[in-house]
Design brief:
2 domains, five-stranded mixed beta sheet
Length: about 500
């Protein structure tokens, strides 16, 4: 029995560690943001509305650009047995959100395992161990791996591409990136092109054989996404082509804010990699083999920097390869820790690990407080039940609340009803018959503020044992209709 347990831990111990951290993030921060809304709503509708497309959220709220249903369909199929059992047991739908996020996390971590196994084969067990340690004490990779962003769906294929690259399966690596580019994230083209060029220049692949393998894959991917998404969107559609046109040709992504060219290198990557940021540069100097793998990934971030609109999630697929380079440096420092100069580096390395862990804890605490409308709706469901259970309770969710924690998985069945109608002026709410409002404004004529939920605002320094603290402020206000006596006669916490 002991030998079996030891063998099991040897095979899956790292997966259990990373999976446990990712699962912790799921249960502690279950709600989702606007960036995840399409896939979250699509999964809900696939699971609960199935073939009744007229009830699907994306037809009423299509978003700025269309996205593919392929990732949502895959996750929903895998999660459906568990969710069917939950429905039979009358579990609230929020548990289904846990289920789909855990299924997605398993898929991404499975591809991560494949990459990790190739690291062990290429660089040894010790580099693999440091790779896992660096990933575990970082926040973003494991926090995001369960979040249904197009970037994360593409991340799974990028992990497979990295694994095949280390294994020497160069054509398979290119095919994985083609799949990711044409179906999930067109910007993966910025990784595919530098990698393909490097493989051609180093004569690792031949041009004609690459065309033979890759054109077939490309046609298959385009056919698959056009077929599926034309049915789901009810019009002829290749989603990622429209995204490419919107972002690159029209350059309209800048409407959502811009950052300077250097932002990924001076802000996003340092916050994401933490201790691995200086170490990955050292790894390139210590082991020449890693340069072949780092160069296309570095080029990917460099090329992406030319796009004015920048977000950390856009380059998150570069993090595993940077972590590999950092793990090589960490392994070399550990092996030489008894030598004079390396002893100093070893102390610095241990200090960086502790700082990284502290930064991850702070970032998690901020993220925990960053979904105020999800907590607001949960509190309303708990406190806002009316005496007469036959009366419908209409809840209006304003755009701010819809973007900061609320999805269809958060909704309850009758007598609760929900509206996300946009464009209602503040002065018009008094003419509507909503029972409750979730709104970013605390004063609306005809409604009384019942309570508010606070959300993360900023980090500030302070004196004392903890040098910093999180500043929270009211973000979402729950208001009740003053004409509804059942609402007004209840005891509420208030907004003061």
């Amino acid at each position: 029995m002991g030998r079996q347990s030891s063998k099991y831990l040897e095979l899956y111990g790292y997966d259990l560690l990373l999976g446990s951290i990712a699962s912790f993030y799921v249960f502690m921060v279950p709600y989702t943001k606007v960036e995840e809304s399409f896939n979250v709503q699509a999964m809900h509708d696939l699971l609960y509305h199935q073939h009744h497309l007229e009830n699907y959220d994306h037809l009423e709220f299509p978003g700025v650009v269309p996205r593919t249903f392929i990732g949502a369909i895959l996750v929903s199929i895998l999660a459906s047995p568990v969710i069917s059992m939950m429905s039979l047991l009358c579990f609230p739908k929020i548990y289904s959100l846990f289920a789909v996020r855990l299924v997605l996390g398993c898929l991404i971590l499975w591809t991560f395992r494949y990459f990790r196994i190739q690291i062990r084969a290429k660089f040894g067990c010790q580099v693999e161990a440091f790779f896992v340690i660096l990933t575990a004490i970082q926040f973003h990779v494991l926090f995001y791996c369960t979040r249904p962003l197009p970037n994360i769906l593409a991340q799974g294929l990028v992990n497979l591409a990295y694994g095949n690259l280390l294994k020497g399966n160069f054509y398979a690596a290119l095919n994985c990136l083609i799949f990711a580019t044409l179906i999930f994230r067109c910007d993966m083209l910025l990784l595919l092109c530098p990698l393909g060029l490097e493989l051609l220049l180093t004569r690792s692949i031949s041009l004609w054989k690459a065309l033979k393998y890759c054109i077939g894959t490309a046609l298959l991917c385009i056919g698959l996404t056009v077929l599926v998404d034309t049915i789901m969107w009810r019009k002829l559609l290749w989603p990622e082509f429209e995204v490419l046109w919107f972002n690159s040709v029209l350059n309209r992504s800048s409407e959502w804010g811009t950052h300077p060219f250097h932002w990924y290198f001076t802000s996003a990557l340092p916050r994401t990699l933490l201790a691995a940021y200086p170490l990955f540069l050292l790894g390139v100097l210590l082991d020449r083999r890693i340069l072949f793998y780092i160069l296309p990934v570095f080029s990917f971030v460099l090329l992406y920097s030319k796009l004015p609109h920048k977000e950390l999630r856009f380059i998150i697929s570069s993090v595993p390869m940077f972590n590999l380079s950092a793990a090589i440096a960490a392994s070399r420092i550990y092996n030489n820790r008894k030598k004079s100069f390396w002893k100093f580096l070893h102390i610095v390395f241990l200090g960086l690990l502790m700082i990284s862990l502290g930064c991850t804890i702070i970032t998690f605490m901020a993220s925990y407080e960053n979904y105020p409308s999800g907590y607001a709706l949960k509190a309303l469901h708990k406190m806002g039940g009316l005496t007469n259970n036959t009366n419908e309770r209409w809840v209006h969710i304003d755009p701010f609340s819809a973007m900061n924690g609320i999805s269809r998985f958060c909704e309850y069945d009758f007598p609760w009803r929900y509206s996300k109608e946009e464009g209602i002026a503040i002065e018009e709410f008094i003419m509507r018959n909503f029972t409750y409002l979730l709104n970013e404004h605390s004063n609306i004529r005809g409604f009384e503020c019942l309570f508010a939920t606070r959300g993360f605002s900023k980090v500030q320094s302070q004196t004392g044992f903890l040098p910093i603290s999180l500043v929270k402020e009211p973000k979402v206000f729950i208001l009740g209709n003053i004409r509804n006596k059942d609402v007004m006669n209840r005891s509420w916490p208030g907004c003061s």
